[in-house]
Amino acid sequence: MNLKEQLSREKRHFMSSYMPVHLTKELYKGNFGEKLDLKHPDSINEKLQYLKLHDYYNNPVVTNCIDKYRIRGYLTEKGMTDLLPELYGAYNSPEDIPFDELPEQFVIKCNHGCGFNIICRDKSKLDIEESKRKLEQWLRQDYWKEFGELQYKFIRKKIIVEQYLGDDISTFKFYCFNGVPKVMYMSANGENGEYDKYYDYFDMEWNHLDISLHGHENRPDWKSIPKPPHFEKMKRTAARLCREFPFVRVDLYNIEGKIYISEMTFIPTGGFMHLTPEGTAEEWGSWLTLEKEDAAE
Fold first, then answer.
1. Residue 16 covered by a domain
2. Which one in 51, 66, 70, 117 has a CA-CA gap of 20 to 30 Å to 40?
3. At residue 220, does pLDDT exceed 80?
4. Parent domain of 254
5. Are 262 and 196 in contact (CB under 8 A)?
């Protein structure tokens, strides 16, 4: 069942604020047809829900890492500013953006969720007023309330304008378990929130994995996808970024050998990943050790 079909938006927002555990259980039962076990989580989805409600809730480090603006400070502390695209400015309101001073190409983002991007490839064709309306609408949204994704709750909303990295950018998304990257998929979505074409999954030796995620397009011609240049460098980057977290997905761009950060995703697909073949979610769950797996709900 589609998440949005389970509960009304108003109910989801209310439950996110006042009953996040109950909301999580309802959504989980609706998606997987079984009760969510938070006392003894087993599958990757159960363990992600546990992390969302416990370790990652109101965690300042996690908040800074998923904040598309404040991750810059985190990477500066790590000595990894080379991963950052150029920042043209950060603003509290669309009216503050000096469009006349921006280059001909740029990307505008809101920092507090996913898909809040405006890609400008030609400033002369950009509808500035429509862009402002979109940004105002996004700033009014409390993204974390849509499905109780508490890890986004404490982000202070901001608009950022960054360097445009190009068209048809591939993204390399490393699933990291207890500080170790183990699985990666390559997608063609770049920074465009309108689509996400999954090429396929690979292990850390670039061996193809017969895994798919429901609702996303897989490429049948995975054998034609060559191992990307600087793949080992991307692996090292992901390993360095994931060290202090039980789980995180590190998303990177590789632009002609130059590595950029896309984002760090702590609860991918909201913790509702329908993975095939059967048993994949349990296998991934076995790779993730939680410190308090037997804690009370």
1. no
2. 66
3. no
4. 171-266
5. no
